């Protein structure tokens, strides 16, 4: 089992990289067999409602996310670690690069770790607000 401090640092370093737009830093701590699941079915974008499996597929998805969604004003609201699981509540401004629209989001992530690597990552936020930002 991964200790709580290692999990906290892994979550924080992954988000620091994501906010910078650093693809390799964003995917560095995903296990080869990891699953990323964005709870965004119905927002009108592919892979926002279907689990993506495996580090190569997650790398491709994160490339798309980094290109399409810029993050700023990111702040950790709460990070709880229990055993090999973490729950993160964060807040930030997200800009859709295709139309320049920005929205402030509250996001909730549930992560599971194995041997210091992320094996499961589920992200949930306001899908109606995403649709509004996308203009769909």
How would you explain this protein's 3D organization?
There is one protein chain. The protein has 136 residues and is α+β, with helices and mostly antiparallel strands. It is built from four helices and six strands; from the N terminus they run ααββαββββα. The chain has a six-stranded mixed β-sheet with strand order 2-1-6-5-4-3. A hairpin with a 2-residue loop joins strand 5 (102-114) and strand 6. The longest helix has 17 residues, at 4-20. It is globular, with a radius of gyration of 14 Å. The chain starts with a helix and ends with a helix. 20% of the residues are buried.
Characterize the main sheet.
Answer: 6 strands, mixed
User: Residue ranges: pLDDT <50 for 5 or more in a row?
Assistant: none
> What's the β-strand tally?
6
Strand content: 35-45%
Order of helices and strands: HHEEHEEEEH
Structural class: alpha+beta
Q: Label the overall shape.
A: globular
Mean pLDDT: 92
Quick take:
By secondary structure, this protein is of the alpha+beta class. The chain is built from 4 helices and 6 strands.
Topology of this protein?
Blueprint (H helix, E strand, L loop, with lengths): L3 H17 L2 H5 L2 E10 L12 E2 L1 H14 E14 L2 E12 L5 E13 L2 E8 L2 H8 L2
Parallel strand pairs: 1-6
Antiparallel strand pairs: 1-2, 3-4, 4-5, 5-6
